[in-house]
Amino acid sequence: MSGPKLYVAGNWKMNGLRPDLTQIQAIRDGVASVENAPDVTVFPPATLLHAASQIVEGSLVEIGAQDCHVGEKGPFTGDLSALMLKDSGATTVILGHSERRAEHGETSREVRAKAATALRAGIKIVVCIGETRGEHVRGLTASVCRRQLADSLPDESTPETTIVAYEPVWAIGSGVSPTTEQITAVHEIVRGCLKDRFRETSGMRWRVLYGGSVSPANAASTFDSPEVDGVLVGGASLKAATFLEIITAAARASERRSAR
Ligand SMILES: O=C(CO)COP(=O)(O)O
Fold first, then answer.
1. Predicted complex: ipTM over 0.85
2. For residue 10, which phi and psi values (nearest 5 degrees)?
3. Most buried pick, 96, 118, 152, 204, via CB within 10 A?
4. Which one of 131, 167, 187, 227 is the catalytic residue?
5. Which residues are annotated as a binding site?
């Protein structure tokens, strides 16, 4: 299988104070000793971006941010621009996370505009999509994901700059996750949309991540799906030891894949 290199992302959400930077150090050092390590990006809160970026400088680990403003600069009190994030050392930004869609009323249209701004600023993007429990139960998963993807991704997206994360809202922080087959089915839909939209032959160059209650206990089975190019981890990324177990599971999975 010759897909992209596996990718493990840790979304710290609104967690982390300066003493927690030791976790970033431990992740950096741990990744350096994992053979066939995946690409790893940690997304701490904005207050830690600069310090975290300095810690990972010259290492295999990158630092990302969790949101940006749609504008480049101006009178937007309390907001952060993509250029500011880049200036603090972030290489990537998560956009359209379901927590922002739900709590800040972010629409896919806004996500797409933010994504275009981030790409113009030279920042990579992780665009999140995923259905709610109600939509899942009503059999709307495929249509919701298709629509969110179409509306959230800017035309400027490329496989090098853009990652899609499928995060079913009902799986986030719940300890419940879809079966590997369910994840595979949605990722196939996502890849099909990417293939059609960007006129590619297979869609296999794009990274499609799974997120939602990923843990050391289920990471290996998640990577059993050849459609999974990586994971977006919330709670289990806060402690380096736990996050490194997931990173190691990704490394073993990439070895199994290349042996096929
Ligand atoms: O929302 C998530 C990552 O962006 C997933 O969070 P949990 O891993 O805590 O379920």
1. yes
2. -115, 110
3. 118
4. 167
5. 11-13, 173, 213, 234-235
